[in-house]
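Q: Sequence in, structure out?
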Amino acid sequence: MVKKISQIILAVVIIGLVYVIYDQISTPIKFENELKQRKSAVIERLKDIRSAQRAFKIKYQRFTSDFDTLADFILHDSLTMERKLVDEDDSVAMAQLKKSGKKNIEKFEVAVIDTVFSPRRLTAQQVHDLRYIPFTDNRQEYIMEAGTVSTGNVSVPVIEVRAPYKMFLDTVNYRQDIINLIDDEVNNFNRYAGVKFGSMEAANNEAGNWED
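A: Exactly. Output:
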């Protein structure tokens, strides 16, 4: 009887050890998969924000730090575009154009929503949701700052939009993995612990840190 109880206890202990070993091996793999999936979605939305901000800057020579302003620009504003009236290789058409006194450039207006995300066209709801970091149930917004920096005697518009890892990763199931990730990024690589584009310290063409 005692021997049988011992065997049962031993079996339970072995099962427990197998589970612990499996968990130690599988957790980092699961975390890496989740990190890749969530980071990709966060980056895709950052790219859309960047496209909209670049269009905003083309028209107003500055960036905006306000998501309501950006959404209103996307949904209701327009951009001035240019196109050639005739093919410059067409000598006959060019001669007629020159004779008429017209320039070979025509300006026209196009709605921001029709061009900024081309070939996609976001719905109004998707535009308003650009502010929200994926996997946060629309509770966490991207941190968005805009301003200027001086380069010589020139004032240059700059922007920075970021999403810290701790905002969009599962801090319950992967608490230690996230702590290790943030520590590694900050202390070993001297990098931002998250995903972002742009910089408030210097003009960098709105580069994303995933593009390094």
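Strands lie at 78-83, 106-111, 143-151, 154-164, 194-198.
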